[in-house]
Amino acid sequence: MANVIKLRKGLDIQLQGKASETKIQLKSNGKYALVPDDFEGVTPKVVVREGDKVKAGDALFVNKQYPDVKFASPVSGVVREVVRGERRKVLCIKVDADAQQSYVDFGKQEVAKMDGKAVVNLLLNAGIFGYINQLPYAVSTNATVQPKAIFVSALRDKPLAASFDFEVKGQEQDFVTGIQALAKVAKTYVGVGPDSAITAHLSSLTSQNVVVTVFDGKCPAGNVGVQVNHLDPVNKGEVVWTIGDPTVVLFIGRLLNTGKVDLRRTVALCGSEVRQPAYVDMLVGEELSTLLSNSYDASKHVRIINGNVLTGRPTTKDGYLGAHSSEVTVIPEGDDADEMLGWIMPRLGQFSVSRSYFSWLMGKKQYALDARIKGGERHMIMSGEYDRVLPMDIYGEYLIKAIITGDIDRQEALGIYEVSPEDFALAEFVDSSKLELQRIVREGLNILRKENA
């Protein structure tokens, strides 16, 4: 029987355009690209050249600071281009896929006969290890430090989030194998939702260094940082590995069960502007143009988001599926909105946390929100807004102030080692000061990481 933790703080935002649990078939155009910026904290060193032939599983780039951490090509084919930006920053490595795919064979493995070192070495060689993150700093991890624990969140509860129960259907054994392998490295905590179908499949592992916990509450109960905070908080000098994207566990399980790198993931095409929201199987780095053609009205001003509405990055039709993106979201941009009398109107179609609009009387109405901020940046007011949507044992507003002022000692005392930018995504949504909280937290973590290097 799994432990249950009930969370009272949080906020569920009901948005129009949730993907129906049906899959559409997508014929790829054969263009792929791996984007180093998808892996936070990684300085890429490209190990291929234009024109090189690669197999699925061959490394395209490595982490310059930790060269044993490789990042695998999702497909076999020819390296078309290494795209660079200012100061020769690597933006992406493009690969044109072969019609017939070939894979590097890493050999099928029996997890029961492996130890933690063998698991880590296999993930490093296969170019999958870099998909695992760590706290502190919320960056892609490395193999030089032994974690005190590993945390996996199999609960997606952000607005319009793709259902992991739907994705994992038929792949339960791969997920169990992945968790079993992680448990060889360190004690592994798996966070699930109250009605998660995967819980029953994990029951056989509870005696094998695996702890399954049910998180019952509003968003952001599925954030891996929230789960770490409630189960085994990170103190200065400690490291935990985190997997907030449960598809990564499927990557690991497929590698062990088949001996091949399979970076296929089930993605939700969602958002109020999408004509028929549904699911589609795509590979990491696959070009989005095939998916997005004819899926929305191109004459409208829209924002295409690579990932979730709260934490994803703006992209275009010519973009590529992010390494950790489980959603491709299309919402109105809002730059062409013309509202008579602005905020004075007692509108029913706009969402408000503070009940400024009468829409709070509409129950669980679904909203078609756009990308507008609706106001400029203002002075920060200590209103307790963050605390109402942040179910962690930290003082969010004081931590943000400490980061802005650069007070490192105060940041450490207020728990910066326990947080990641996504933990402040909801606080950023409700913030009446209109601060870019996720950017502020990321910059604070980067400075702290540099100071402690």
Strand content: 15-25%
Shape: globular
**Helix share, percent:** 10-25%
Total number of beta strands: 19
- Describe the largest sheet: 7 strands, mixed
Low-confidence stretches: none
Give the neighbour order of strands across the main sheet: 1-13-12-11-14-9-10
What's the total helix number? 12
Protein model, in words:
It is a single chain. The model has no long low-confidence stretch (mean pLDDT 93). The chain is globular. Helix 3 (172-185) crosses helix 6 (247-258). The protein is built from 12 helices and 19 strands. The chain has a 7-stranded mixed β-sheet, sandwiched between helices. The chain has a 5-stranded mixed β-sheet with strand order 16-15-19-17-18, with no helix packed on it. It has a 4-stranded antiparallel β-sheet with strand order 2-8-7-4, with no helix packed on it. By secondary structure, it is α/β, with parallel strands linked by helices. It starts with a strand and ends with a helix.
Label this structure with key terms:
about 450 residues, alpha/beta, 5-stranded mixed sheet
Sum this structure up briefly.
The protein has 453 residues and is α/β, with parallel strands linked by helices.
Topology:
Layout: E1 3-6, E2 31-34, E3 44-46, E4 53-54, E5 59-63, E6 70-72, E7 77-84, E8 90-97, H1 116-126, E9 133-135, E10 139-140, E11 149-153, H2 164-168, H3 172-185, E12 188-192, H4 199-202, E13 210-216, H5 224-231, E14 240-243, H6 247-258, E15 264-270, E16 278-283, H7 289-292, E17 302-306, E18 313-315, E19 327-332, H8 385-389, H9 396-405, H10 408-413, H11 425-430, H12 437-452
Parallel strand pairs: 1-13, 11-12, 11-14, 12-13, 15-19
Antiparallel strand pairs: 2-8, 3-5, 4-7, 5-6, 7-8, 9-10, 9-14, 15-16, 17-18, 17-19
Helix pairs in contact: 1-3, 3-6
